[in-house]
Amino acid sequence: MHSFPQSFRDELSELMRWRRDVRRFRTDPVEQAVLDRCLASFACAPSVGLSEPWRLVQLTSPEARAKALANYQDANADALKGYSGDQATRYATLKLSGMAEAPIQFAIYCDEATDKGAGLGAATMPEARRYSVVGAIMQFWLTARAEGLGVGWVSVLDPARLNADLDVPPDWHLVAYLCVGWPEATSDTPELETLGWEARAAALPLETR
Amino acid sequence: MHSFPQSFRDELSELMRWRRDVRRFRTDPVEQAVLDRCLASFACAPSVGLSEPWRLVQLTSPEARAKALANYQDANADALKGYSGDQATRYATLKLSGMAEAPIQFAIYCDEATDKGAGLGAATMPEARRYSVVGAIMQFWLTARAEGLGVGWVSVLDPARLNADLDVPPDWHLVAYLCVGWPEATSDTPELETLGWEARAAALPLETR
């Protein structure tokens, strides 16, 4: 039996309140020991059938990073075309990734073909494997924030192009592209709210049956 | 600037180590105030474009719960047919849901049609909306464990049948079915490992490019 005191629960709530999707990073390096402590949180993440389907690709070469950055830039230019008027102007001013600056970058995949777990829990909802990867990323994100590190999740990417550029196995499905580094600033308010794109909801949408 | 001390980081790591997918619940009720503190963690979860696409349906009526339980039982019987020999014997002895006992149960959806966030970040990877719901569930799960509550994620369900039984809007996509309650026991080892179904990996799969 392992229980947690009120003081910890309060601080956990503060951690979640001060976790941000970070797009503005300092370029100074992150010590490997700090990164390793954050990555250790993958090992205790929940996964359907204990399948642990997460596969990480760290982009360390200038070539791989340049291809990923160009992918983002093209996808972001395409996304801009979907807006018009004031909304297009506002979209164009947003900074949606720190890929040009973040010292640490990962493409995170789900191995759809893993034998691990023998398919338990994934017959009717095979997407549970991808969700397992997301749960692990969330643990990494919170652990990183507790270390003072910023994490930014970039979804403005063409997955097929990234997979080809990184030459990953065909059964790997891209779940996330993460930027990691020391943030320029900390805040308890999402940048999209500060910049007027969208506000947080007042209440949780909850119905009963 | 909000920073977190080493003592908190150590305890956060312990929280993740002692979080379990719980399938064995006591039937005594959970105070609403405790549940509300856990649900509050949704409000500070990350979401693509600040779309906050999570929609919760709490199953409180005996009718709704009976339908969900029958759904699980049928899906589990079908899943058993996918195994043979020793593996089938082992699968049949596993307890994969606490739906017959857990006092609190939620079906958690993603609203695929939400206007919130104006589609930002979801053009090339619309699945980022569902992943946002998973991230929020992970925050709920950790917060619940810190309160001593157990959470079990059931994916052995036919989503179309559950959606029809719960009469949810057509644009809502089922992400998870959660059981919540006081656990019969706590452990730092997954039940699937204890019962010999699967073991945790020795190392994180990480490649570089």
Radius of gyration of chain A: 18 Å
CATH topology of chain A: NADH Oxidase
What is the N-to-C order of secondary-structure elements of chain A (H for helix, E for strand)? Answer: HHEHHEHEHEHE
Number of domains of chain A: 1
Enumerate the strands of the largest sheet of chain A in spatial order, edge to edge or round the barrel: 1-2-4-3
Helix content of chain A: 25-40%
For the record, the CATH class of chain A is Alpha Beta
Superfamily (CATH H level) name of chain A: NADH Oxidase
Total beta-strand segments of chain A: 5
Please describe what this structure looks like.
The structure is a homodimer of 209-residue chains. In chain A, helix 2 (32-39) crosses helix 5 and helix 3 (62-80) runs antiparallel to helix 6. Chain A is globular and about 55 Å long. Chain A has helices at residues 6-18, 32-39, 62-80, 85-93, 128-146, 159-166, 191-194, and strands spanning 54-58, 104-111, 150-154, 172-181, 206-208. In chain A, strands 1-2-4-3 form a four-stranded antiparallel β-sheet, sandwiched between helices. Chain A has a single domain (21-194), classed as NADH Oxidase. The first copy, chain A, is α+β, with helices and mostly antiparallel strands. Chain A has seven helices and five strands, in the order H-H-E-H-H-E-H-E-H-E-H-E. Helices cover 38% and strands 15% of the residues of chain A. Chains A and B meet through helix 1, strand 1, helix 3, helix 5 and strand 4 of A and helix 1, strand 1, helix 3, helix 5 and strand 4 of B. Strand 5 of chain A pairs parallel with strand 1 (54-58) of chain B, so a sheet runs across the interface.
